[in-house]
Amino acid sequence: MNIELTIEKLVFGGDGLGFVDGKAYFVEGALPGEKVLARITNDKKNYGKARLIKVLSPSPERLTPPCPYVQSCGGCQYQHIRYTDELRWKELQVRESFAQTIRIDPALIQPIRQGPREYHYRQSITLHRTAKNNQKPSPLAFIGRDNRSFVFIQNCLLAGESLQNVFKELHTLGKYETKRVFKIAENGAIVSSEEDKLYRIRLADELFWAHSRGFFQNNLEVTQQVVEELQNIVEMVKPSRFIDLYSGVGTFAALAGSQAQEIFCFEESIYAVECLKRNLKERQLPGAIFKGRVEQTFPNFWLGNQKEGSLVLLDPPRLGITYDLASFFAKADKMKNIIYLACDLQILIRDLKIILSKGRYQIKTIVPFDMFPRTKHLEVLAWLEQI
Asked: Which pLDDT score, from 0 to 100, does residue 247 have?
């Protein structure tokens, strides 16, 4: 079924929101002020999703996307507007999301931070197997907008320049490989998840060890801004202990936690732990490393090692923390400051509502970072202080 509607605003995720007979519809690719023709793809009781068919009355903000694959790929949601407008809408989405849920003082939300580049900022890409015969060299591809089809491309506007040749090459995947991750090392060389090796990467003028099969932040310039914000907070609160949960290879512990008397790192990935040890040792930092699931290792540690003046940094994967861990934080004593760094705004708000539910903490500040320009994603830092 097709509908005509006028778009009122952009919501979290980049969809345009409009109404038909009082019912909300979310239309991907539509802009505020536009009258559009759309086809309903998912019709729920209280809202619906629709696919843009035609823009009947375009917004003056609309641009022609520079990427020829934008319609089929689906990796970018904001190429059809100016980057300044994207930043404005993303910040507004953060403000509206908190206003509708936790309802904090708007003054606590800082302006969105941005990096120097809106394109070619990604340090890694993930491409998927397309051939049934894994012994035959074949091109790899992105998964399409429909989550089923393959999109073969010659270049990606988000990927770093050093990664562009990867799209043109043929690859032979292992028997159980369904995808392969490619990353840029410090010297511009490409490492992939096919390899089992350590490599060097530079952040904030310092070299770190990372693993070809592990995680490292994709946008180095914006990650450096996150580091600077963490350093400012640490300088203000002067914690006796810096406790880094989901610490990865230890970039935040090394760059922001070095001012504390003690550093405790909690990480599950075997690839990250190997690099974490090296990165702390090189800097001669007094760090203790706890291997295993954070949801298990940290509560056990804290119950036997409570100490005034501790600062806890949470930087979990996109799915956030578990309900049990969030509830643990809500009831914990002597945990003076908590910093939650999230790459999904809605997950962050879900977890903060639990942590704040017992009335022991208040939000000190919220800082959005545009870690992923031209996409619907962004990084948000929340600083909580014990009351």
From this structure: 97
Q: What is the pLDDT of residue 119?
A: 97
Q: What is the 8-class DSSP label of residue 264? A: E
Burial class (CB in 10 A: 0-12, 13-18, 19+), 130: middle
Return the DSSP state at 259.
G
Same domain? For 279 and 359 the reply is: yes
For residue 51, what is the domain's CATH number? 2.40.50.140
Domain span including residue 56: 2-61
User: How many Cβ atoms sit within 10 Å of the Cβ of residue 110?
Assistant: 15
Place of tokens 């592990």: 214
Tell me how far apart the alpha carbons of residues 97 and 91 are, in angstroms, rounded to a whole number. 10
What average pLDDT does range 309-320 have in this prediction? Answer: 96
Sign of the Cα torsion 236, 241, 244, 248 reads positive
Query: Could you give the dihedral angle defined by the CA atoms of residues 168, 173, 178 and 181, in that order, rounded to the nearest 10 degrees?
Result: -60
3-state secondary structure of 325: helix
Burial of 42 (0-12, 13-18, 19+ CB in 10 A): exposed
CA distances (Å), origin 194, targets 172, 197, 367 = 10, 9, 36
Cα–Cα distance measured from residue 124 to residue 153, given in angstroms and rounded to the nearest whole number: 16
Percent of the chain whose predicted confidence (pLDDT) is above 90? 90
CA 170 to chain centre: 29
358: in domain = yes
Distance CA 265, CA 258 (A): 12
Q: 136's torsion region: left (phi>0), alpha (psi -120 to 50) or beta? A: beta
Q: How many CB atoms lie within 10 A of CB 117?
A: 15
Q: Where are the alpha helices (DSSP H) in the chain?
A: 70-73, 83-100, 220-237, 251-256, 270-282, 294-304, 323-331, 345-355
Residue 166: count other Cβ atoms within 10 Å of its Cβ: 18
CA distance 45 to 214: 42
Angle at 216 between CA 287 and CA 90, to 5 degrees: 115
User: Does some domain include residue 19?
Assistant: yes
Residue 111 CA to residue 172 CA, distance in Å, equals: 45
Residue 71 lies in a domain: no
Domain-located, residue 227: yes
Say yes or no to pLDDT of 134 above 70: no
pTM value?
A: 0.94
